[in-house]
Amino acid sequence: MPENLLKGKLGIITGALDENSIAWKAALKAHEQGAKFVLTNAPIAMRMGAIKELAEHCNTIIIPADATSLEDIEKLYAESKEYLGGNFDFLLHSIGMSPNIRKGRSYGDLNYDWVNKSYDVSAISFHKMMHIAEKMDIMNEWGSILGLSYIAAQRVYPFYTDMADAKALLESIARGYGYRYGKLKKVRVNTISQSPTKTTAGTGIGGFDAFYNFAESMSPLGNASAEACADYIITMFSDLTRYVTMQNLFHDGGYSTTGISEELMEQFRDL
């Protein structure tokens, strides 16, 4: 990747938990490419991770914020602008959780209070972040806003339950706000639909290892790593992708458009 692809750009990266997370790797690469940014996560998530180490490496600060709280987002943006010295060129929404999945509730036996929590954290917070950014006029023209999605927004994966619905909502919000923000300030809004990735959140889903191996055998290029996704994020934050907006961008080694692989056909040939 060219050096200083993000030189002079300012932004916020949410959701970095530990060295396995996509947001963590994106922060490292953004720092390498010359960006200046603030890290943020929910206070409870910060207690679980090692984000302070990341902040020290990237020579930045951490501002705790609950992305479901409008007041917290306003405070995050105001303090980040003061620290960074200007408006933002990029925002990364790398936030998602499902109490139903954590507690093993099946799709036919969801706790609806938890469903609302899943939607609020995983998708509606994306809308809230853009709503407050627009309200505060905090994004620069030609800025880039990204959310992280998953193919379960389009296809059925029984283990993904209400998170699949949340990701579908996330992608819809990216289209709706992408149109609005493009007309207002030429800000582009996209989602990246990543391969199953061995992050702390990903491996917490039941049956993850089996599906990871399945996707690996289906994808002609193999599963995309978290580090490769971070490279893609940096490209989407750069000026090289100025006219890409309102898209759900599959970053999955070709899995999303492969019907069946030769490896899987071989497994079932003699059954």
UniProtKB/TrEMBL annotation:
<keyword id="KW-0520">NAD</keyword>
<keyword id="KW-0560">Oxidoreductase</keyword>
<feature type="active site" description="Proton acceptor">
    <location>
        <position position="160"/>
    </location>
</feature>
<feature type="binding site">
    <location>
        <position position="15"/>
    </location>
    <ligand>
        <name>NAD(+)</name>
    </ligand>
</feature>
<dbReference type="InterPro" id="IPR014358">
    <property type="entry name" value="Enoyl-ACP_Rdtase_NADH"/>
</dbReference>
<dbReference type="GO" id="GO:0006633">
    <property type="term" value="P:fatty acid biosynthetic process"/>
</dbReference>
<feature type="active site" description="Proton acceptor">
    <location>
        <position position="150"/>
    </location>
</feature>
<feature type="binding site">
    <location>
        <position position="167"/>
    </location>
    <ligand>
        <name>NAD(+)</name>
    </ligand>
</feature>
<keyword id="KW-0276">Fatty acid metabolism</keyword>
<keyword id="KW-0444">Lipid biosynthesis</keyword>
<comment type="pathway">
    <text>Lipid metabolism; fatty acid biosynthesis.</text>
</comment>
<comment type="similarity">
    <text>Belongs to the short-chain dehydrogenases/reductases (SDR) family. FabI subfamily.</text>
</comment>
<dbReference type="Pfam" id="PF13561">
    <property type="entry name" value="adh_short_C2"/>
</dbReference>
<keyword id="KW-0275">Fatty acid biosynthesis</keyword>
<feature type="binding site">
    <location>
        <begin position="21"/>
        <end position="22"/>
    </location>
    <ligand>
        <name>NAD(+)</name>
    </ligand>
</feature>
<dbReference type="InterPro" id="IPR002347">
    <property type="entry name" value="SDR_fam"/>
</dbReference>
<feature type="binding site">
    <location>
        <position position="95"/>
    </location>
    <ligand>
        <name>NAD(+)</name>
    </ligand>
</feature>
<protein>
    <recommendedName>
        <fullName>Enoyl-[acyl-carrier-protein] reductase [NADH]</fullName>
        <ecNumber>1.3.1.9</ecNumber>
    </recommendedName>
</protein>
<keyword id="KW-0443">Lipid metabolism</keyword>
<dbReference type="GO" id="GO:0004318">
    <property type="term" value="F:enoyl-[acyl-carrier-protein] reductase (NADH) activity"/>
</dbReference>
<dbReference type="InterPro" id="IPR036291">
    <property type="entry name" value="NAD(P)-bd_dom_sf"/>
</dbReference>
